[in-house]
Amino acid sequence: MALKFKKIKVDKKVNYGFLDKQQKPVKFKNRIGLGQVHQNRIICLSRPTRKRFFAGFDGSITNQKGITLTVNVADCFPIYLYDAKNKTVGLLHSGWRGTVRNISGRAIAMMVKQFSSKAKNIRACIGPGIRSCHFEIKKDVINKFKKYPDAIIKKADGLFVDLPNIIKTQLTKTGVALKNIQDCKECTFCDAKKYFSFRRDKHGKPKTMLAYISLVA
Ligand SMILES: [Zn+2]
Description:
This protein has 217 residues and is an alpha/beta fold. It has three helices and 14 strands. Zinc ion is lined by residues 131, 133-134, 187, 189-190.
């Protein structure tokens, strides 16, 4: 496992990771896949199900052991959620569209509602994605970010957005403590050895990497 989050490593009851381009694929038993349509719908898996794919969703939360939540990413951020108190997990696909649609805030609200989680007990980890060093936006989408002026960075060569900054703002707004948010700080565009990047690799066939989290059975 290349990616280690101190905030999750609290016990052996949760298994998570990120399969970057240097790692061999893993075949998960009971893997949950999502349609990933850049919206903000989150599926709640609160009882055993045989269904393994949910079209039209960009996030999932569960209290069920032995199923592996996954998202495919290459520039979009995987957001890992873990409530150590009541043993629930979540995983989100948060590109810029999902981020402006506040998928992180919605996921926390859902964990609170469905699993009686307390936001202060939830730990959140932000995986590798495209960061403000490379996430340039054109003027036509700037108004989508108008709620988050602090996240817009004006440079001589254009406008850039700090998506993890927005995600952190949304999480803390729901009551997640800043100290319980860990950001791996890695940029998929910057590190071509380790990561696929949709923007950087646009000439080839786009490839993605797999983020996963599960409660150990
Ligand atoms: Zn970068």
